[in-house]
Amino acid sequence: MNANGGFEPVFCSIVPPHVLDNLAQHEDSALATPARRTLERDALERTRRRLTTVIGAPAATPPTADAGAPYRTVYDAEHQETLPGTKVRDEGDEPGGDATVNRAYAGLGATFELYLRAYGRDSIDGKGLPLDATVHFGENYDNAFWNGEQMVFGDGDGEIFLDFTLPVDVIGHELTHGVTQYTANLAYFGESGALNESMSDVFGSLIKQYSLGQTAAEADWLIGAGLLAPRVTGQALRSMKEPGSAYDDDVLGKDPQPGTMDGYVRTSRDNGGVHINSGIPNHAFYLVATELGGHAWERAGQIWYDVLTGGELDTHATFADFARLTVAAAVTRYREGAEQEAVLKAWGRVGVPAT
Q: Does residue 275 carry a catalytic annotation?
């Protein structure tokens, strides 16, 4: 929580700074200019989030829908950078001619559905919080983010990144930052920040799997598949199945995520490498989910959700803290058995002590 006793909103974007840094240095201005503008805008959003912790966030709009039903509003920024923009679709409206608007609306609904049906959570805050999103943000804006209050989607530059509403797991990832904000409120630095990012990848992937009706074995375990333009040598932003394998491109560079503690990256960039080191807990979850089989949002997802929302996860938790709590949560919910064994085995394989 912040100094005012409220939950601290952080600026969380789907594309890591190290990726945009590589693009910003490219000799081709068609690649470098959108990346530079995106980095500048992202820096402004981070400053605004810090100011919010001092002056407080505006009061949330009270829900106008029945409990257990989403209330979605999509706005169009019309390539400007003023939020929220012009309202273009409200809850219950029929789909219009803008596919980006329709995808944003559907993605908000898919996220709401997973949290409600799988975990009994009524929206992001558990109290029916309205879900707002702005599309067509900025000119060739290469990111999507949760700003503590709403979702924002860029259209991408068309060269490296496509429309950020295309992968539903990107929408789920960013909205899950809101869930974390209202629950464990994990500090966005170092291992706790990497856990913050990992929770968003985990539930973003589960939202995609739930939407498609996939089992753990059928899922691709990729974050942002379909986001990269055809010229990019890569399949997604991150891989939970095989961290470090999502892309290997002459412009973007090589995916730097480690899958075990042997590869843990110590850096001052990206809040201590939160987008890089999240590969370790990501891989642990993948191992638990595939070991248990079936639908990953059920047993594996339930254990992770119990820890995130259970009240025992410290704001500055380490990987080991989180691992121990997942073992305890597995025993509490399922007693000693396959679930506990799968959790212990997974953390052991990624090199994180869980006992």
A: yes
* Half-sphere exposure for 176 (CA within 13 Å, toward CB): 30
Per-residue pLDDT of the chain (355 residues; tens, 9 = 90+): 443 334 455 667 888 888 888 888 888 888 888 888 888 877 767 555 544 433 444 445 555 557 789 999 999 999 999 999 999 999 999 999 999 999 999 999 999 999 999 999 999 999 999 999 999 999 999 999 998 889 999 999 999 999 999 999 999 999 999 999 999 999 999 999 999 999 999 999 999 999 999 999 999 999 999 999 999 999 999 999 999 999 999 999 999 999 999 999 999 989 999 999 999 999 999 999 999 999 999 999 999 999 999 999 999 999 999 999 999 999 999 999 999 999 999 999 999 999 8
* 8 Å CB contact between 202 and 215: no
Tell me whether residue 26 is one of the annotated catalytic residues: no
Residue 113: enclosing H or E segment and its boundaries? helix 99-119
Q: Is the pTM of this model over 0.85?
A: yes
User: 174, 191, 197, 339: which is the annotated catalytic residue?
Assistant: 174
Catalytic pick among 136, 173, 177, 275: 275
